[in-house]
UniProtKB/TrEMBL annotation:
One of its GO terms (molecular function) is glutathione transferase activity. Belongs to the GST superfamily. Alpha family. Pfam families: GST_C_3, GST_N. One of its GO terms (biological process) is xenobiotic metabolic process. Its EC number is 2.5.1.18. The gene is Gsta1. It comes from the Eukaryota. It is an enzyme of class 2 (transferase). Residues 3-83 form the GST N-terminal domain. Keywords: Transferase. This is glutathione transferase.
Amino acid sequence: MSGKPKLHYVNARGRMEPIRWLLAAAGVEFEESFLETKDDLKKLQTDGSLLFQQVPMVEIDGMKMVQTRAVLNYVAGKYNLYGKDLKERALIDMYVEGIIDLNELILSNIFQPADKKEEHFATVVDKATKRYFPVYEKVLKDHGQDFLVGNKLSRADVQLLETILMAEECKPDMLAKFPLLQSFKARISNIPNIKKFLQPGSQRKPPIQEKDIPRLMQIF
């Protein structure tokens, strides 16, 4: 055992990607074991590795952790990315829950039937620009600091940057009306650990493409 966290998931973004981002932001090296076939998933299910019979699963500190939010909470707490007190943690949790909602809306776009894609994409843009990004723009304005909570990097900053970049992959001018978020994106992207993760060749995964869907559906 190397002592590095080991991530069990498909070789794609999905629900594991925020965990990859958070570990990378914390400067933690991790290994990945990719599920290539349905049998790979069944093996984890039958050997007792998956508490609820589903991935993602992360081996860390002698545990086999499942449930994405639980893993993210643990990583954030372990690596001091979860605020200095309960009040800051509550703010981080609120901001993160909104980010997750938007993240999953964006992720689901590729899986929409052809006749629903345009309508779903319009919903993504509408909610991103009218419900979610205005909140974070206001938080940054009211807080007056470089980060969403306190004055140090937290999981909320990392997960917001991830989702901003995903949104811009869908629509490059998504932040056109949000100058503080534009500055936030540039600032957080230049934090050394995050800048490294954004470079080609890192363990960050590319967007899921139409051609990837049959392969992923065969595993799950």
